[in-house]
Amino acid sequence: GCCYGIPYDGPGAVVYERSLVAPAGVPLCPVQFLEAGLLFALALGLFLYTDVNPKRPKKYGWTAYLLTYAMLRFFLEYLRGDDRGNYLGWSTSQWLSLILFGAAAAHTAYAALSRRRRGKQAQACHKTNKKYERGRRENGQ
């Protein structure tokens, strides 16, 4: 396959006998299997985090997925042995992971600031309503 791992002699090593791109007969890191397992664990963890506790809003699961996936993909690229291009020492996928992480982090920060702003507006509105109701009672309305 095109996404073969770096040379690795440990448990689970994959050996390609016939491949157009992977080195034949060399034990390699099972990076595809590792990535699939980590993404399954991530999906399970996010499912348990968002679905088990109904008080947690599900909309944050997507952002958490993007942040975590970007980090996983960035570090898994070090375990890949194929040539995916390189700019300033990082592969194209690592650069894309940084962009994805930055965008998801910016979205998370924007959402948090928006929630805080809406909360302050709601508190101010609530105080105004209390003053209005108290004034109506005092005036006998």
Written account of the structure:
By secondary structure, the protein is an all-alpha fold. About 60% of the residues lie in helices and about 5% in strands. It is built from 3 helices and 2 strands; from the N terminus they run ββααα. It has a two-stranded antiparallel sheet with strand order 1-2. The longest helix is centred in the last third of the chain and has 47 residues, at about 90-140. The mean pLDDT is about 80.
User: Which series of helices and strands comes N to C?
Assistant: EEHHH
- What is the number of beta strands? 2
The largest pleated sheet is described as:
2 strands, antiparallel
Strand content: under 5%
Termini separation: 79 Å
Helical percentage: 55-70%
Structural class: mainly alpha
Uncertain regions spanning at least 5 consecutive residues: none
Strand order across the largest sheet: 1-2
